[in-house]
Amino acid sequence: MITLDGKRIASAIKSAIKSELEGLPESKRPGLGTILVGDDPASHTYVAGKHRDCAEVGIRSLRVELPASASDREIHAAIDSFNRDPHCTGFIVQLPIPGRESITFLEAIDPEKDCDGLNPINLGHLLLDEHGIYPCTPLAILTLLRSYEIELEGVSVAILGRGITVGRPLAMLLSSHHVNASVSIVHSKTIDPERIIRQADVVIAAVGKKWFLTPSMIKPGATVVDVGLTRVDGKLFGDVDPAVAEVAGALSPVPGGVGPMTRAMLLDNIMQIHRRKMKR
To answer: Residue ranges of the Tetrahydrofolate dehydrogenase/cyclohydrolase catalytic domain (predicted)?
Structure first.
């Protein structure tokens, strides 16, 4: 079985970015902004990791942290501040935002600074097969699969989950004209989901349930990508039962698979925005 080692591929991406930025004065380096609302430990861990990555490659960090009690007006003010800040190349609003729907905040992000690729305009570029900034986790999955030369054109892909950060944009990306996979989305209302999963050549699990995908649910030799994370008693678990390794032809580990690749794609998106800005 092939282990889809996201750490290794992410390290190579970060090394290339670091080399590109070496020698640039501070004023010419891109800056990544983050807006974090609330006290969720996982969100704080994710954001801290993103800023460590920035320090590693030479991207400047800009941070705004707000309490869970922050008003919508305060969150929008933070977004507006980054939209106007010339030192901020791009930024993210860390999701989820406690007690709120995310869409109004994602809509408020300047599409040209939306390094998470979740503003409706950037999602529209993805839908229309146009070049643009795409969501980080779908990009991470595609980049990881291509790095290991996993065939996708014409291949049956089952995506488990239909969230806005992974499932739905991933379905658009993999079914686009430059990938050409045949995609099925499996969700809570799908009739006979195990039949669809067992027929798939590639299974991507993004449901957020510990060990949801078991060996009996996949066909021998299938490629399996574990995206979902669940914290149980302080420990992180993926969506895929470890025993799936006995059946799969390729499997991404948790941790060390999609997670580091997602952070690397955030840096790559920042660099795309930075290069575009430098050409103007």
So the answer is: 4-116
